[in-house]
Amino acid sequence: MKVVAFNSSARLDGNTAILLKTALGELEREGIQTELIQLAKEQIPGCGACYRCFKQKDERCSVDTDPVNDYIAKMAAADGILLGSPVYFADITANMKALIERCGMVSRANDDLYQRKVGAGVVAVRRGGAIHAFNSLNHFFTIGQMVIVGSSYWNIGIGREPGEVLSDAEGIQTMKTLGKNMAWLLKTVGLSNRYGG
Ligand SMILES: Cc1cc2nc3c(=O)[nH]c(=O)nc-3n(C[C@H](O)[C@H](O)[C@H](O)COP(=O)(O)O)c2cc1C
Q: What spacing in Å lies between the alpha carbon of 31 and ligand 1's midpoint?
């Protein structure tokens, strides 16, 4: 089984990456393969509303000049998906919004490509807007027939400078619990989904 995580921060290996890696660490301890994809060096355009994905239905975005088609394939191949974003102006980053628009449209054009996969959003925040950003991430899962996994708190870690989230003990614990719960869900619900149950 595999979980793929996306970090949409403009900062490589910052707080969002730390939070995601904490959850992924628990998944690995449970024998689940993981991959972290960081978008820091990418500038991903949003959906251009060409609707070619609905005509072609080939599980691809018609824009092939950036890595989004690789990301779509990685999501489709995974059993679980984590979407991580820092809060930028009380919401997710522009790259995460673009990822959601394009992967989301291709999913809709292909009979909900990621349906019944297990998913969760993860948010790094300095002070305000975390719940709003968390909700924005969850929109991706709920429209796509995915199953959202919860934790002991909403999946938020508090910090400003890279590494500061490590001082947020409750945030780190929330990520560990999230990873454990995701592993449990994957091993029960996820397997039956994968084999058509
Ligand atoms: C453009 C920009 C906008 C931000 N807006 C907010 C905000 O609205 N609320 C907040 O609490 N923090 C805000 N922050 C701070 C980041 O959310 C915070 O530093 C977070 O830990 C960054 O995570 P990262 O290290 O993964 O990039 C903003 C940072 C940037 C660069």
A: 33
Q: Report residue 62: phi and psi, to 5°.
A: -70, -20
Among residues 44, 25, 29, 125, the alpha carbon closest in space to that of 82 is found at 25
pLDDT tens readout for residues 170-195: 999 999 999 999 999 999 986 565 54
pTM of the shown model: 0.97
CA nearest ligand 1 atom 29, residue: 88
Task: State the closest ligand 1 atom to the C-alpha of 165, by its place in the atom list counted from 1.
Answer: 21
Residues lining ligand 1, Cβ inside 6 A? 9, 11, 14-16, 86-90, 124-129, 159-160, 162
Residue minimizing CA distance to atom 12 of ligand 1? 126
For 118-151, write each residue's pLDDT tens digit. 999 999 999 999 999 999 999 999 999 999 999 9
Per-residue tokens: 175: 């990520």
> Alpha helices, DSSP H only, in the chain?
15-29, 52-56, 68-77, 94-109, 130-143, 169-185, 191-194
CA distance linking residue 163 with residue 132, whole number of Å: 23
